[in-house]
Write a structure and sequence with these properties.
Blueprint (H helix, E strand, L loop, with lengths): L1 H10 L7 E2 L5 E2 L5 H14 L5 E2 L4 E2 L12 E4 L14 H4 L1 E3 L16 H4 L1 H29 L5 H11 L3
């Protein structure tokens, strides 16, 4: 995407448009529509949509939204009472917004890997198990201590009889 940003800094909107080299030959845009959409979404997430800094290569100019299409008229401004503004002319009263809005107006965060999505719950689970670890270790040691034979002549005799091969 750095190359795409470099092209946008250098050429602006022309980097998003195909160019006619000869009378019959067309050259693809320097920045593909997919990469342009990714850069636009990134600018929306970072809050830099509406301004483009060509020195830093940050942001997105709204004039770049689907450059070959005319802008769609989305809504009509309302006054404070909720009534449509009828005092001005129709052209002045309509608010034009970029046509690249799509059916889903909210931008969902990326899905990411499952290990990244469940990281917080796994960390909480591990912390709970670590908190119980000392108690479980103590129980295990007491259990193992209880399994050991008691010292004495009786235990020595049992062991000797068990190990005898005669």
């Amino acid at each position: 995407m750095r190359a795409a940003l470099r092209q946008l800094c250098r050429h602006g909107i022309e980097a998003l448009r195909p160019q006619k080299v000869d009378d019959k030959v067309w050259r693809k845009p320097a920045v593909s529509k997919r990469v342009a959409a990714d850069l636009r979404k990134l600018a929306l997430r970072n809050g830099t949509y509406g301004k483009f800094d060509s020195e830093l290569g940050v942001g997105w100019d709204p004039a770049w939204d689907t450059p070959d299409r005319p802008k769609k008229i989305i809504m009509q401004p309302m006054d404070l009472a909720g009534n449509a503004d009828s005092s001005s002319t129709l052209i002045d009263s309509l608010l034009q917004i970029g046509s690249n809005r799509g059916a889903i107006e909210s931008i969902r965060p990326p899905k990411e890997h499952k290990r990244d999505r469940t990281r917080e719950s796994r960390a909480q689970k591990i912390e709970a198990l670590v908190a119980q670890a000392d108690e479980k270790i103590e129980e295990y040691r007491l259990e193992m201590e209880g399994k050991k034979p008691k010292p004495g002549i009786e235990e020595e005799f049992k062991r000797a009889v068990k190990g005898a091969s005669w």
